[in-house]
C-alpha cells in the first residue's frame, strides 16, 4: 500500500493552504529546490558547456529527454523507449497530428470534441489550414464522439479527461472503434498522467501527448512529452524537423535524416533546468501505486461531492456523478463562480475557475487528505451561506483564472 503521509512530506506546501489545484499546476516537491540549485551552481556554473556530456550525474544533459521519457512512460503504460520529453504540449499536439495525417492519405476529417482543450483545437485548425488540402476539423459534443467515428475519419484527437468537467473518455473503446474504421487515435493525457493508471499500449493509442506540470508536478513551464506506438515509431515523419531529431545532429548535415523511433520527435535544445525539476518530481513516484492513487482520489472526491451538495445547495455538480466516468477533479457550476473561487483562495483553499461558470477542484492524494476535504467543504459552505463572495474585490478578473 502506498504511504500517502510519506508522499505528503515530500511537498513544500505553504502553511495554512489547502491546495486543490494540482490539476492545473502541481505543487513543488521539496527535492526540486535543491536539485535545481545544484544544477545551476555545480553544473551550469562549474561545468559550463561541458555539462552536455558531464552533467546530470555523469549521464550528460543531452540524455535527459529520453531518460525522463522512460520514467513517464512507466506512468502511462508505454513500452520502453517510446516516450520522449521536450518542447511544449502545443508543439507535441502539432507533431502527432501532422504525422498521423500523413499515415492516412485520402481521408480529410480530424474528429475531436467540444470538451477538448482549446489549444489542441487551435493547433489542429492551424495545421489543417496550412496543409491546404481540404481537411476538416469536426468537433462534436463529448457524448457524441463514439457515433461520429466513421470511415471518413483520418484521426481521432481527444483529451482523455475534459479540462472543465473532468469527464473521462474510454480510451480503449474509442481507439478500437477508430482503428476498425481505418483511422488513427491521438490522446492528450494532460489531465490523466499521474492522476490514475493509464495504459497507452494496452489501449492501442497510436500517439499520446501530455504536459508534466499538473499531476506530475514538474513546475510552471515544465516540458511536455510525446508517445509514438512501436508499430509507427519508424514510420512517423516529423513535420517539425528539429536538429535534435536528426539521426546525427552533430554531423551538421544540410539534409535532414530522422532519428530512430521516437527520438525523431525531438525538436529543440532540452530545457535542462526545467528537466532537472521534473526529474526530482518524478522521484516522488518511486514506490507509489497508481491504483492506490486512483482509489484514494475517488474516495476524496466522493467525500467532497457529498459534503458540498449537503452544505451548498446553490452549487450544481458539473462533473459526472459516477466516479468511473471522471478523472481526478470535481467541478461545480455557479453563476458567480469566479467570485466564490477568489473568496476561497483568500481563505487558503486554492482551486481555480473556468469560464463561464465552472469552479474546479483537484484531488491528489500525494498531498491531500480527508482533513483537507472536510476543511475545504466547511470554508466553502461558510462563503456560500453568508454570501461572502459578494464583494467587489472578488469580482475583479485577473489575467489568469
The level of helicity is 25-40%
Query: What is the name of the CATH superfamily of the largest domain?
Result: Type I PLP-dependent aspartate aminotransferase-like (Major domain)
Tally of alpha and pi helices: 14
Quick one: CATH class of the largest domain? Alpha Beta
Question: What's the quick description here?
Answer:
By secondary structure, the chain is of the alpha/beta class. Helices cover 37% and strands 13% of the residues.
Notable features of this structure?
single chain, 401 residues, alpha/beta, Aspartate Aminotransferase, domain 1, Aspartate Aminotransferase, domain 2, seven-stranded mixed beta sheet, four-stranded antiparallel beta sheet, pyridoxal phosphate binding, kynureninase activity, hydrolase
Structural commentary:
InterPro entries: Kynureninase, PyrdxlP-dep_Trfase, PyrdxlP-dep_Trfase_major, PyrdxlP-dep_Trfase_small. GO terms for molecular function: kynureninase activity; pyridoxal phosphate binding. Catalyzes the cleavage of L-kynurenine (L-Kyn) and L-3-hydroxykynurenine (L-3OHKyn) into anthranilic acid (AA) and 3-hydroxyanthranilic acid (3-OHAA), respectively. The modification N6-(pyridoxal phosphate)lysine is found at residue 214. Pyridoxal 5'-phosphate binds at residues 89-90, 117-120, 159, 188, 191, 213, 243, 269. The model has no long low-confidence stretch (mean pLDDT 97). The longest helix has 22 residues, at 290-311. The chain starts with a helix and ends in a 6-residue tail after the last helix. The protein contains 14 helices and 13 strands. The strands form three sheets. The protein has a seven-stranded mixed beta sheet with strand order 2-8-7-6-5-3-4, with helices on both faces. A four-stranded antiparallel beta sheet has the order 9-10-13-12, covered by helices on one side. The protein has a two-stranded parallel sheet with strand order 1-11. The protein is an alpha/beta fold and 401 residues long. The chain has helices at 4-8, 30-47, 51-54, 64-76, 89-102, 118-131, 145-148, 171-180, 230-233, 272-283, 290-311, 337-346, 370-385, 392-395; strands at 18-19, 83-85, 109-113, 136-140, 153-159, 184-188, 207-210, 225-228, 316-317, 329-333, 349-350, 352-354, 358-362. β3 (109-113), α6 and β4 (136-140) form a beta-alpha-beta unit. It has two domains: 4-29 and 287-395, Aspartate Aminotransferase, domain 1 (Alpha-Beta Complex); 32-282, Type I PLP-dependent aspartate aminotransferase-like (Major domain) (Aspartate Aminotransferase, domain 2, 3-Layer(aba) Sandwich).
Amino acid at each position: 500500500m502506498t504511504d500517502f503521509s510519506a508522499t505528503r512530506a515530500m511537498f513544500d506546501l505553504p502553511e495554512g493552504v489547502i491546495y486543490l489545484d494540482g490539476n492545473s499546476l502541481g505543487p513543488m516537491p521539496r527535492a526540486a529546490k535543491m536539485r535545481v540549485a545544484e544544477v545551476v551552481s555545480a553544473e551550469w556554473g562549474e561545468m559550463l558547456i561541458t555539462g552536455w556530456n558531464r552533467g546530470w550525474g555523469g549521464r550528460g544533459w543531452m540524455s535527459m529527454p529520453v531518460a525522463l521519457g522512460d520514467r513517464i512512460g512507466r506512468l502511462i503504460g508505454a513500452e520502453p523507449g517510446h516516450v520522449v520529453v521536450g518542447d511544449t504540449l502545443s508543439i507535441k499536439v502539432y507533431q502527432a497530428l501532422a504525422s498521423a495525417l500523413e499515415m492516412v492519405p485520402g481521408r480529410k476529417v480530424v474528429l475531436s470534441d467540444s470538451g477538448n482543450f482549446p489549444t489542441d483545437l487551435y493547433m489542429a485548425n492551424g495545421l489543417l489550414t496550412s496543409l491546404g488540402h481540404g481537411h476538416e476539423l469536426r468537433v462534436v459534443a463529448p457524448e457524441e464522439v463514439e457515433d461520429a467515428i466513421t470511415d471518413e475519419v483520418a484521426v481521432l484527437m481527444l483529451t482523455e479527461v475534459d479540462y472543465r468537467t473532468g469527464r473521462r473518455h474510454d480510451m480503449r473503446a474509442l481507439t478500437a472503434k477508430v482503428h476498425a474504421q481505418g483511422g488513427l487515435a491521438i490522446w492528450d493525457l494532460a489531465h490523466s498522467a499521474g492522476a490514475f493508471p493509464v495504459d497507452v499500449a494496452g489501449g492501442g493509442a497510436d500517439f499520446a501527448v501530455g504536459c508534466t506540470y499538473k499531476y506530475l508536478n514538474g513546475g510552471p513551464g515544465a516540458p511536455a512529452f510525446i508517445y509514438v506506438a512501436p508499430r509507427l515509431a519508424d514510420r512517423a515523419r516529423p513535420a517539425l524537423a528539429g536538429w535534435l531529431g536528426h539521426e546525427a545532429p552533430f554531423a551538421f548535415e544540410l539534409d535532414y535524416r530522422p532519428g530512430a523511433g521516437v527520438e525523431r520527435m525531438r525538436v529543440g535544445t532540452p530545457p535542462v533546468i526545467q528537466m532537472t525539476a521534473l526529474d526530482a518530481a518524478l522521484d516522488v513516484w518511486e514506490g507509489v501505486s497508481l491504483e492506490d492513487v486512483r482509489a484514494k482520489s475517488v474516495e476524496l472526491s466522493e467525500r467532497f461531492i457529498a459534503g458540498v451538495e449537503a452544505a451548498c445547495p446553490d452549487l450544481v455538480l458539473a462533473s459526472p456523478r459516477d466516479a468511473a466516468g471522471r478523472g481526478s477533479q470535481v467541478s461545480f457550476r455557479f453563476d458567480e463562480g469566479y467570485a466564490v473561487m477568489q473568496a476561497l483562495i483568500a481563505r487558503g483553499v486554492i482551486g481555480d475557475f473556468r469560464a463561464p461558470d465552472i469552479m474546479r477542484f483537484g484531488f491528489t492524494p500525494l498531498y491531500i487528505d480527508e482533513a483537507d476535504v472536510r476543511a475545504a467543504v466547511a470554508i466553502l459552505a461558510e462563503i456560500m451561506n453568508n454570501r461572502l463572495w459578494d464583494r467587489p474585490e472578488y469580482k475583479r478578473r485577473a489575467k489568469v483564472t
